[in-house]
Amino acid sequence: MPEMVADALVILKRNLIKFRRQPEMLIGYTIQPIMFVLLFVYVFGGSIDTGMDYEDFLIPGIIVQNITFGGALTAVGLVEDLNKGLIDRFRSLPMARSAVLAGRTLADVVVNLFGVIIVILVGYVVGFRFSTSVPEVLYGILLLLLFGYAFSWIFALVGLYSTSAESAQQIGFTVIFPITFISSAFVPIQNMPAPLEAFAEVNPFTLAVDAMRHLFVGTPAGDSVWQATLWSVGLVAVFAPLAVMKYRKVSAR
Amino acid sequence: MPDPAIIAEGLQKSYGKVEALRGVDLRAEAGSVLGLLGPNGAGKTTAVRILTTLLEADAGSARVAGLDVKADAKQLRGRIGLAGQYAAVDENLTGFENLDMVGRLYHLGKPTARERARDLLERFDLSDAADRPAKTYSGGMRRRLDLAAALVAHPPVVFLDEPTTGLDPRSRIGLWETIEARVAEGTTVLLTTQYLDEADRLADRIAVIDHGTVIAEGTSDELKSQIGGERLEVKLRDTADEEKAIRALGGICDDVHAEFPLVTVPGHIPVADAVRALDDAGVAIDDIAVRRPTLDDVFLTLTGRPAEEVEDSDA
Fold this sequence. Notes:
With 253 residues, chain A is mostly helical. Chain A has one domain. Chain A has 11 helices and no strands. Chain B has 315 residues and is α/β, with parallel strands linked by helices. In chain B, 34% of the residues lie in helices and 26% in strands. At the A-B interface, helix 1 and helix 5 of A face helix 2 and helix 3 of B.
């Protein structure tokens, strides 16, 4: 096994142990999407005309929004490791330079998969149903995890530049939260004011959400599936090297 | 003679306008302990970070365990251990899991990593706590675990950055004994400390560092003799006897305290001889003692200020 993979797996294991020992973290992580599903379906659902069942419209949107925030765990975890001197320890070891970040972001994938399952289960309770083939659903979940993985790398970079866990989370929420809303996640973008609609159309969230709707409930795909895939790969290709570069120079505070 | 385990020449490092290191030379022979003594902000931690490949120097060069800290960084990381003032252990992992993880990251292989983890927990008196998350450990236990992590790969050179800062006296002595045991086995140690007694006890040679430069270097005794060696301190019953006492003790007086009947005479005078001489001269004394200079005195003499009176601003 290449050294980099072996090292990353050691770090992955370490992070998964942490989730197991701090289940309250995961509870917090799952309550938010459940709340969002219930609020949107029952509070806004009746007033939003999407031309289809709102549950089927909403669940792909919520699931995409939720997965982008999974990466916040990476930012928070890295800031903690920096402040506690663990990153110094790792950097003084003869391990691969990318392994700490790779193990960290891979741990997010595991947690994200858990989150995806939760949202789908809650979706089923409120009336969401898959209406596509099994391979389409599986590709959808794979694409979701890839999209979430891309955001884990963005959050990794944010975490390495942050001085506190709070500030890292704050950056995540103030930047990413609005962007997820100015997309097709919760409402059809045709009803937005023209400038917002123009933004929403090119927003990668819209692409990801449209791709998920196509793969889960069979709405027309357009170019969304391959474009969302390309965006995910592209974001990893840009942000992973940037984060590793920053990691090589980062110092404890 | 074998190469020194640590050799640094002309290390310089600036953070913006702050010059953390202004040309530092260090040297530690294999199997010895080099103490880097200085107040907070002196540049000790910066020097350790450069020697452990965490930071690149702006100028100068350093070799550790025969390897260049810049060119052979990756290889060097396999031959050093680092433990620090922050006790860098993963609180969510048990003691065993922490050491096992570090062993795996040193690429020892699974069986060896596990064996070393168990062995070190035993030797560091942590066996009972081996399967408890480190967040339940006391401060002293965490430091021991941190130090154990630095030793997992049996590295020939170990860096300890203020290993006992913030520990209670008992834990400090325990940690000192552990370090001494490693050194007895041939490990080279570079130890930074702001505690003079710590350097005095552990270090074979001491480099006193202040404002990014080494202002003195030598054994503890050499440093002490720089400021005059031993003195005899005599506490008189009556201040009026001062002149008489000084004459009886050879005529040289270092220090006469105006409002305090205390006479300090430099040089090595056996106490018994001094008592006899004072008695013959009819001088009554309350107390007499040989006073050896402490590293506190050294620091005061070298820098013009006590070691403790420095603002906390380590870069």
